[in-house]
Amino acid sequence: MNIRSNPEKTVPAVTTGPLPSSRKIFASPDAAPDLRVPLREIILSEGAGEPNLPVYDTSGPYTDPSVTIDVNAGLPRNRKQWVLERGGVEEYEGRQIKPEDNGSVSTDKAARAFSAYHKPLRGLDGHKITQLEFARAGIITKEMIYVAARENLGRKQQLERAEAALADGESFGAAVPAFITPEFVRSEIARGRAIIPSNINHSELEPMIIGRNFLTKINANIGNSAVTSSVEEEVEKMVWAIRWGADTVMDLSTGRNIHTTREWILRNAPVPIGTVPIYQALEKCNGDPVKLTWELYKDTLIEQCEQGVDYFTIHAGVRLQYIHLTANRVTGIVSRGGSIMAKWCLAHHKESFLYTHFDEICDLMRKYDVSFSLGDGLRPGSIADANDRAQFAELETLGELTKIAWDKGCQVMIEGPGHVPMHKIKINMDKQLKECGEAPFYTLGPLTTDIAPGYDHITSGIGAAMIGWFGCAMLCYVTPKEHLGLPDRNDVKTGVITYKIAAHAADLAKGHPAAQLRDDALSRARFEFRWTDQFNLGLDPDTAKSFHDETLPKEAHKVAHFCSMCGPKFCSMKITQDVRDYAATLNDPNRVGMSMAGTAEDGMARMSAKFKEMGESLYLDAEKVKESNRVL
Amino acid sequence: MNIRSNPEKTVPAVTTGPLPSSRKIFASPDAAPDLRVPLREIILSEGAGEPNLPVYDTSGPYTDPSVTIDVNAGLPRNRKQWVLERGGVEEYEGRQIKPEDNGSVSTDKAARAFSAYHKPLRGLDGHKITQLEFARAGIITKEMIYVAARENLGRKQQLERAEAALADGESFGAAVPAFITPEFVRSEIARGRAIIPSNINHSELEPMIIGRNFLTKINANIGNSAVTSSVEEEVEKMVWAIRWGADTVMDLSTGRNIHTTREWILRNAPVPIGTVPIYQALEKCNGDPVKLTWELYKDTLIEQCEQGVDYFTIHAGVRLQYIHLTANRVTGIVSRGGSIMAKWCLAHHKESFLYTHFDEICDLMRKYDVSFSLGDGLRPGSIADANDRAQFAELETLGELTKIAWDKGCQVMIEGPGHVPMHKIKINMDKQLKECGEAPFYTLGPLTTDIAPGYDHITSGIGAAMIGWFGCAMLCYVTPKEHLGLPDRNDVKTGVITYKIAAHAADLAKGHPAAQLRDDALSRARFEFRWTDQFNLGLDPDTAKSFHDETLPKEAHKVAHFCSMCGPKFCSMKITQDVRDYAATLNDPNRVGMSMAGTAEDGMARMSAKFKEMGESLYLDAEKVKESNRVL
Questions:
Q1: Prediction ipTM score
Q2: Which end of chain A is more exposed for a tag (fewer CB within 10 A), N or C?
Q3: Where are the domains of chain B?
């Protein structure tokens, strides 16, 4: 090891503990009962009259009070055994860490090195290594069994018909089955329609799947900057992002300590970690794109493959012949990777080395099962440039590269924009599906207007929900600081929650068979004035509770069910009951829209009497409470 | 006057002054040069190389430094002259104000009365009064001329072809013309496809138009609550909401001082004010819906017609025969007006008096040109209940009532939900257009999922953008406090900005011929590192600037164009110039996607040399700045 380290630097402190009224539970899939697939169970209040709700849980052991978190040691490396037991890999002495891997940082500015060095694994020639290769061979891996259980959200079987009938979405050709089996996972991966980003060296991973026939996923970007953040902050940002629901995290660090930062993140990350290797390669040649070489880039890929990065953004579609297509754009080239490669191509007047060496890149990534995230270096940076020839020319090349990577046995997803007005989103999605053979699409937003700096989580959340509905498999978040500065911890949370909303809205609209269960549970809690259940079933119980407490009189908000303001807590239910009783008096309760004159006079008279008995104050008080808690 | 007043209470203080780098300008339409139609001109920095940008301005005189604001006196009543000069109205002694109009408030709890009493106008029989009646008669009113100029956003003529070509949206049958003429406004109103809510007694009004062939509008709800706010706060909330872009404001006050609050708001409101008269009627019978009578309700309508309310939400579609349709809903009836009427119908086992007296309501509202906003009392309160039979049965009745109101000469818009998953939004919109003869639709959100209390401005902003695109004419905002408590001033701003985003995204997607001008101006500013222009062109310059300042080193953010961080400010433009020069060297600059091998070798070689001369550091520094200002 030749890594500069400063042992006096602190070990990162991270946020731990369960979310409000939640506990970690584990599913044990029939196909592999030794697996412990985590879910979060939201515990409802006593008397809720319905079961607790299990929800998808990205947060890892950090929310499990029975686990002692030691960031210095990293998470347990359980998955290494899965990889070893299926064979075809070797442990070897990894690449030597070099000073330039950390931007040649001086010892006083060096971060503390991670406590341990794990020898890397790599695939042996002639053996299956990637999830794609196993899937094609008809082999169901533990990763596949794990994600199948995860996707079912605690269901052990298909929903009853009445519940499944909720799933009346428009899927635009996606085909989310009523229940996810390991075999379905395998078939989707074999088809290239889904990926499990899972470097064989990321032993801390809790596997997850990205594909349009599964739950829509979200990514959170983090990463240090020379000026404003540290290793400590970045590890906490990762833990914080997954606490609120980030399915994967990209480490976009630049500058010094880049290798060490990534090591800390990976060893503590239960979610897939993605990177853009060209960023680190650029640091290794002092930030001069012209000096980039294939050898330098390849060396960086090996470094990151050995660390356990699960997917690489590679801008191999920025071809020399496309660069002039950006000439008349309003915002030119806005992708950092894209402009680095454009500069290299122009300066050398050569085709991109990422394109010319694509076969070698595939061979290398296959050995570690690092997934491709084919980058959109020519993505539009403004509404004006959306869906233009430059963007689509690159997308066509990404389709060509997808097929090459598949032939090599690599898993692939495709990155997308960016800035796209609503009416061009579906066109973009459909073209991606067509050009890239249904490989998963992974988009940044898109932002549906350029006019709201400071609110781009919202401009892009609109586009993200729509493209998720149309078939996008993973949505890369945008925070309120987009275009303005570096996101802090609060911005990360706002970005993640906004994108959880977008992803869930997409799942509902696609007709995911279990998505609406949470909406319904929350709506019932809302209608029955079970305030704490309403908070806890939401994406951000803390904020919901604090907003509620902010407005209500102090005496009142200490009473769990608002009895002090609304009288009997069940009064709103009484209104419904009243309507239900009334409906039952009709001759034919199923008929609709018909005049009732002369058909149910007796029933109405009875109801009128009953209503008067019931006491009208119940009604009124319920109304007052509702009103006081509704936007005026 | 028999109105309790407390003269010791303060006069409301409101926010005044222009937005950053903005000035009020006025268009003078050719058809009526005496009209002064306000616009806000965003002043760009020196050297921007492009003209200042005029934008739609809802903020009234409050942002005009040349006007002295006196809330106690109210805004100038210019529009009274327009109404008088076209005749057909009489001034008369209005209805006597009664103690119950203010909830029988005691003198010590009474708000200060507004300073002046203006005798109301009403229409005379046999004369045209409403904008609809004038439009049908082929008469173009000043209001129509005014809104035509307003909708053109400062354009005096159709855009040049190159700019108009930007408008490549999908309009779903809407037909926004390239340029809005007064005659077009008249024809749309005559057709019932647009309304100008403009009570003849709201003389302070700056008229605006609501219809799907015009800019998408937004509404902000305000209103006092007995516990948490005052007249002062509500007047400021109105001024604050229009400062950020609310096109209309609904006063949903309940409890005491309801008449006085409304008077203060109206006399200071340059935007249309809407109300839900049943709320005040309910206060007049001590909150007991069963005691409501047609006479009491009618008296309340007269009271508010005389004050100058521009549109009334009337839940006349909640018919007795539909109530049982809500029996099996997850969230029953969630509209306050809807549940009041449902209760009344069940208690009396009678058809709703709003339905049985609808003709009389029309006759009354016509006399003052109060527009209908036909309320959706059976709107869904959860994803589970969206687009159900109860909702659609009511919508069909609203269609029937629309035709009655039109026959009576009244302007009409239709309220819509609520909670609707994405895949059901267009179905809802299309049904509204069909059932209601294209009368403008006015929806609350819709919220696209129920699972994010605390973030319902976002869950609903997604739905609002989509339904705006599909044809909804006005979007009623939802604030972060929805379902949890009363919105404060910050919540009002967040709600308004979120909905301005939704409305603008809708305009872009529909292909509004001028909408993209602002996106493009902002994108150019962004790409050229004109930071202050970027902030000022945005919807919320203050927040954009503060986010920017938060992250950047203090020395740097005092330099206007970031020169201290990025070297020459034009360096990012240099990248684009480089690409442009390169493109110019190609034999055929228009060809796309072809290999360039052997076709432009000389050009490439020249460019390579030129690039080396240019100095690579320019490039790099620009990249660093971009990176430092991008989400990591």
A1: 0.91
A2: N
A3: 22-411
